[in-house]
Model the fold of this input.
Amino acid sequence: MIVKTVSEARAELSDLLGKVQHGKEEVTILRHGKPAGVMISMEAYAFLERMEDEMLARMGDASYAEYLADPSKAVTHEELWARLEADTTS
Done:
């Protein structure tokens, strides 16, 4: 993985983008010495999106199975989304 400061990344953006796109590199960008962001290829991003979609589908299926097992445990869609957000951010 390549690590660059914001200033370095700005100055080398075209080269770094080429490495990410064609060389399958990942670039961590530091701001004040701490990781602030990551550049990844579109293929890696698409993979992460698919994994997130699959995880959310499994969570939805689990919630529905819980409801079918005991309808008294039904939750509103707001509660379900709050659970999903909590699980995806932790």
